[in-house]
Design a protein that fits this description.
Oligomer: single chain
Helix content: 55-70%
Number of strands: 2
Radius of gyration: 22 Å
Structural class: mainly alpha
Order of helices and strands: HEHHEHHHH
Strand order of the largest sheet: 1-2
Distance between the termini: 16 Å
Length: 145
């Protein structure tokens, strides 16, 4: 589920206690301390985090910085989800690839009966290098299509 700008603004508002449109290290430390339950977040670590996220060098995290961070996190989560899905279809004999047989077996487990010919046709559509198999890259292209 893609976050909307207003969602990012809500997160920004949570961290930006003084309402100046920027998150300083003190505000971030305070809110992260509340989240971890023990308030043990070290200020130096928070300052380093702000420095890392701060794209314009003003010492603060802006809405744009926050959006970039959260979009990167969403993208990483999508990749992890795709890796998990790929492993479900992965052929145990040909590790790292989805074969027509492994596709047919997984679809059967999901209650979708397909012939080996149909599975080959499904793979062929996204088989970028023409080897008759789907690599993780090809699977990703298919799932993002």
């Amino acid at each position: 589920m893609k976050m909307e700008k207003r969602d990012y603004e809500g997160v920004m508002k949570y961290f930006d206690e003084d309402g100046d449109g920027k998150i300083c290290a003190w505000e971030l430390r305070k809110k992260l301390g509340m989240m971890d339950g023990c308030g043990e977040t070290v200020m130096k670590e928070v300052e380093l985090l702000v420095e890392e996220l701060d794209s314009d060098g003003d010492g603060f995290v802006s809405l744009e910085d926050l959006m970039k961070l959260m979009e990167e996190a969403e993208e990483e989560e999508k990749i992890r989800d795709l890796e998990d899905a790929f492993q479900m279809y992965n052929d145990s004999q040909m590790l790292g690839f989805i074969t027509p047989n492994s596709l047919q077996n997984m679809l059967a487990r999901l209650g979708q009966s397909k012939s080996i010919h149909q599975c080959k046709a499904m793979i062929h559509h996204f088989d970028l290098n023409g080897d008759g198999l789907l690599s993780f890259h090809e699977f990703t292209v298919m799932m993002m299509h």
